Amino acid sequence: MCAQTSVCFVLVGQPVLICLLQKVGWGREGNNLLVRSKAFLTQIDQSLCFSFSFFQSPLDRAQAAKNKGNKYFKAGRYEQAIQCYTEAISLCPPERNLDLSTFYQNRAAAYEQLFLCYFLDVTAVCILEAFQNQQSMLLADKVLKLLGKEKAKEKYKNREPLMPSPQFIKSYFSSFTDDIISQPLLKGEKSDEDKDKEGEASEVKENSGYLRAKQYMEEENYDKIISECTKEIEAKGKYMAEALLLRATFYLLIGNANAAKPDLDQVISMEDANVKLRANALIKRGSMYMQQQQPALSTQDFNMAADIDPQNADVYHHRGQLKILLDQIEEAVEDFDECIRLRPDSALAQAQKCFALYRQAYTGNNPLPVQVAMKGFEDVIKKFPKCAEGYALYAQALTDQQQFGKADEMYDKCIDLEPDNATTYVHKGLLQLQWKQDLDKGLELISKAIEIDNKCDFAYETMGTIEVQRGNLDKAIEMFNKAINLAKSEMEMAHLYSLCDAAYAQTEVAKKYGLKPPTL
């Protein structure tokens, strides 16, 4: 058979070929010819498959790999599905963003199911071992973190930005003393409407989106601030640098770091802008990097802020907090000392310095330095009796020292000073559990926190954790999901997903194996 005839067979397909075979030599060779014809047909099938694959576009091949992966996924064969989705990602042209996104989502779903299968088994092991085997617990924790990270990556990208409570916003701005954008409006800067209310001249010298945004800040009308800042920026107005910084700050507050970063970058690069604005932008970008677990970039920004504005107390205060997170306590104390030197009236810096010294002494198991730090707290609350943070940090130290009654008094002082601060109610609720094992009182205080601020993710997380310990897993999952929707960073969301998945796994293990963990 010539090469030309073979090509013809491939193109016309099997029916014609069978006719030809029936016509040529069927009677002479009988069954042998039938065997050879079947083998030849198999070769042609393979040739056809190869030909079609050869002429498919990369996108078509990627889609085919995805479809194959979908079949494996439906069959519960998640490892094979992951291989197919990975192949689809590698074949897909980079400009096909939508298709790539789908392939990545498919792979993420397969990873999630695979990890979940592993985690259900690990959870069963942990329950059977009464959560006493450290190796099993570490394995469970590792799988949980992987699951949480994968889920948070997808969820955080598509989350609905949410303005935090007024109390949270006020607490945030109170941590800055050299922040131009959080200073009250001067009389001459007020708008028409405000001047009319005060019986002043109603003529406005300038129409500024930034000044309107500042006015909304004073009125706690926070939802309008970003749009007013945008008007100032688009008009390239007189307060453009201030508007960029204020808009970036509120982007950070609603958890939209991707939108905040370009604004912060622009302010930092404006060499003719007020140095206080640039330093403040560096502090906020540095804090953002720390939230994103990029300590090197964070440290770099804080150091740059100290270089361009060495007399700015905020730089040292916030860098001190960074050093505590990095477990660099001695350097943190040095920064707090510099902040206090520049701002002797900084109650926050003095309270946080005491807490840093206390943690260093407590973790080092040094009784004498612990006593010195505790005495330092007494001095701070005596010197700054209206600083709620001082009482709160002292209460945490007192709780460590098993001085529960006094800690409870400190939380009461916090509540007197800041009755709208939901976090204090949560801490006081946890204290009731640790001190008196009073579950009802603890839950009552945490419920009060949610009533005061229904955006307090810490309250939902804490209540979820307590419900897990009580064995109310469905309620716990509900609480964790509420906290997830309020998370202010991807890292925080990943942690909350880990808690939620742990609760979910326990419910599945209970259904599947009849195993239940110990409860309170």
UniProtKB/TrEMBL annotation:
GO CC term, one of those recorded: mitochondrial outer membrane
InterPro entries recorded: TPR-like_helical_dom_sf, TPR_rpt
One Pfam match: TPR_8
Organism name: Chrysolophus pictus (Golden pheasant)
Single GO term (MF): mitochondrion targeting sequence binding
Residues annotated as signal peptide: 1-27
Protein name: Translocase of outer mitochondrial membrane 70
Topology relative to the membrane: Single-pass membrane protein
